[in-house]
Amino acid sequence: xxxxxxxxxxxxxxxxxxxxxxxxxxxxxxxxxxxxxxxxxxxxxxxxxxxxxxxxxxxxxxxxxxxxxxxxxxxxxxxxxxxxxxxxxxxxxxxxxxxxxxxxxxxxxxxxxxxxxxxxxxxxxxxxxxxxxx
Length: 134
What we know:
41% of the residues lie in helices and 19% in strands. By secondary structure, the chain is an alpha+beta fold. The chain folds into 2 domains: 3-35, no CATH class; 52-133, no CATH class. A 4-stranded antiparallel beta sheet has the order 2-1-4-3. α1 packs antiparallel against α2. 10% of the residues are buried. The model is unreliable at 37-44 (pLDDT under 50).
């Protein structure tokens, strides 16, 4: 556990801060730790970790979705399914992709699994959905 986290927990146990304040501070520490992740961060297989999860949807009737989700948000525990536009999530669900299963994976395993993720859906009516990491 990091020194910052220990100090926050000590302040909480000593009654110097409330549980809500401690929670807020812990979130900030987690976010700042995520910000320090660099593109040079390597995983066990010595490849660069992806920085973003991208979802791109183009429909024939002109609707467009272009979502760029920083991996740091996933690392801090924000549920991926909550970030997806409802229409994109429904389209992915219809094509057999259930992102709700990902929320229970340990973060490092999730990031490693997402590294190889690439979903390309071309519907008969010309709609396209692309999900990938970069």
